[in-house]
Amino acid sequence: MVTARVFGFFKKSRPPADEPATAVPAAETAAVPAAAGEPAIPPAATPPAAAEPAPKSSWAQRLKQGLAKTRAKLGSQIGGLFGLGRKIDEALYEELETVLLTADVGVDATAALLDNLRRKVKKQGLTEAPQLQDALKEALTELLAPLEAPLSIDGRRPFIIMLAGVNGAGKTTTIGKLTHLFQSQGHSVLLGAGDTFRAAAREQLLVWGERNGVTVISQEKGDAAAVIYDAVAAARARNVDVVLADTAGRLPTQLHLMEEIKKVKRVIQKIDPEAPHEVLLVLDANTGQNLVNQVKAFDDALGVTGLVLTKLDGTARGGAIAAIAQARPIPVRYIGVGEGLEDLRPFVARDFVDALFAA
Ligand SMILES: Nc1nc2c(ncn2[C@@H]2O[C@H](COP(=O)(O)OP(=O)(O)OP(=O)(O)O)[C@@H](O)[C@H]2O)c(=O)[nH]1
Ligand SMILES: [Mg+2]
Predict the structure, then answer these.
(1) For the purposes of burial, counting CB atoms within 10 Å of the CB of 134, is it exposed (0-12), middle (13-18) or buried (19 or more)?
(2) Does pLDDT of 296 surpass 60?
């Protein structure tokens, strides 16, 4: 498929007069890539081929590998507490509490986990420290289970997914990986370059589009809402299955930017009142417990329906997922453990916990 095209039918799919004035005239809708002189794509934006995982390594292996740092912090330290010969006593609970707190699990989730653990210990009549490991794995799996709710795109066409998040969280990379994932499931995909602040951001999305052989709707000028409007209209006209709408990074404290992204959502709703069908908040796992604040703020502003936790491979702070589960249990649709196309998969609580405690 030809990439990065903008088609003439845009003119026909222009919004009627009562539609938002944000949709730019077709004449301004420019085919990309942009002219020479545009900034080069930053190296970080296009993962080198070397970053692709070896095809033979299974997801379970990559997940285990990806969680190595968090495991070293959390799993291994906990394992160290549960040595043979040690009894379950108050001192053990206190040490466990410290480990959980230092692994970004957060005060509330730590308290909830320990409560649950104490109940299990009582109920099952456990006395030996090594028995606590399995009970803790169970408690953690129970805490994370409500986050396990895979995204289903069935029943809506186009299924419109809008991505949001702070700068550098991994939104655009996640779009590249999701495109690959949906295509591997036989779905057609179209991308909307809603990050209109930086030319490099547009270019980055175009590269992902090219890699996956999908159309990217982009404008050199114009606001995010207009571009995404065009992308949704194009997807409808072409009967595309999934639209992935990229947006610029923003902090929830940047109120004008939060208003801008709310507008993107409103404009999508002009085409389909039930859309966007998914508002995905992309989170950088390195952020640790502050993720909870990000989740709350974006959710309050936008109504977040799913989370993507990226960069678990680069951080020891993956325990923060427990803090999110306790504070605002929005489904974690996907987790990212690397820069390769295959390094994004649905979140499965038990697999995650198993990988955390793997030998
Ligand atoms: N190691 C690793 N790196 C990742 C992962 N996801 C994204 N990255 C890297 O994180 C950096 C930022 O990713 P982007 O996708 O550009 O982030 P963004 O949220 O679109 O950033 P802005 O558009 O600037 O707000 C890039 O270097 C990516 O390769 C991941 O799961 N693991
Ligand atoms: Mg981006």
Answers:
(1) middle
(2) yes
Looking at residue 343, its amino acid is D
Mean pLDDT score, 299-309: 97
Quick one: pLDDT at residue 167? 96
Give the whole-angstrom CA distance, residue 245 versus residue 279.
Answer: 10
Backbone angles phi, psi at 288, to 5 degrees: 70, -145
Average pLDDT over residues 219-236: 93
CA of 168 to the centre of ligand 2 (A): 7
Q: Over 60: is that where the pLDDT of 10 sits?
A: no
Q: Cα angle vertex 155, ends 154, 158, to 5°?
A: 85
pLDDT, position 182: 97
CA distances from 114 to 55, 59, 133, 204, 296 (A): 40, 30, 12, 44, 24
Which residues lie with the beta carbon below 6 Å from any ligand 1 atom? 44-45, 47, 165, 167-173, 195, 201, 249, 282, 310-311, 313-314, 336-339, 343
